[in-house]
TrEMBL record:
Name of this protein: Cytochrome b5-like heme/steroid binding domain-containing protein
Region (Disordered): 1-20
Cytochrome b5 heme-binding domain span: 25-120
Endpoints of the signal sequence: none
Xref: Pfam families: Cyt-b5
Amino acid sequence: MTGTESGRFAPKVPVQLDPPKDDLIPVEELAKCNGTDPNRPTYVAIKGIIFDVSRNSAYGREGQYHVFAGKDASRALACSSLKAEECRPEWYDLGENEKKVLEEWFTFFSKRYNIVGKVKDATNY
């Protein structure tokens, strides 16, 4: 990726991120972090990596991207889909264009949200 490409994903307002964590979080725990419980963070996983999106209301209960919350939404993001059935971790069988889109989403998230861990037993890194 060239400097220009990575720059295009930079947030308009700089974000101070914590060092990435590599805690293993079971998929059952990830599912509980779906933006509906105010006592829990809101997480979205991409390619098995879990991002804390709690401070963005778009992933909360009433948010336009709530469908991604509490799951590995790799396939849906790669396919630019908001369908719940597309919010799943499998993405290896997608075409090169979709894989590029997924990589762009991963870059976008990694510049905005803290990485809090990995999905335990994930095979889609």
